[in-house]
Amino acid sequence: MASRWGGAYDFDGPGVHGVEVDVVCRNVPVVCLNKASDFEENAAWMIQATSDGTGRADSLYEYCNDSDVMSACRKLGLGKDEICIVRLREHKELRAVGTSGKRSTMLACVIALSLADPDGLEDLWAGLRS
Known about the structure:
The chain has helices spanning 38-49, 67-75, 102-116, 122-129, and strands spanning 19-24, 28-33, 61-63, 84-88, 95-98. By secondary structure, the protein is of the alpha+beta class.
């Protein structure tokens, strides 16, 4: 399968989990998630584990406009219709981008939180270990 960004990747290779991540604007993860990835079915609980929110997973973030992030994503070769920029409701300073649907956006939020506070996500790490 060809990457959206010009490279190639094989989702069946060792150590590959169907996720492609770029980081733009110093700390904004841009995530493309293959529908066959294990992360696809686990993205919702992962974002819930990183947040104090008890509601639906997609209520933990909100869509936003950010011209710098949009420009950086366009430089990666993404079309404007592929780019979903969000910010976390509890951490409004954190931005994340999903490029392949709602689950990629959720996983991008998890990555943004882990970049901001890698030691503060004990529930997530415990869940991933199990």
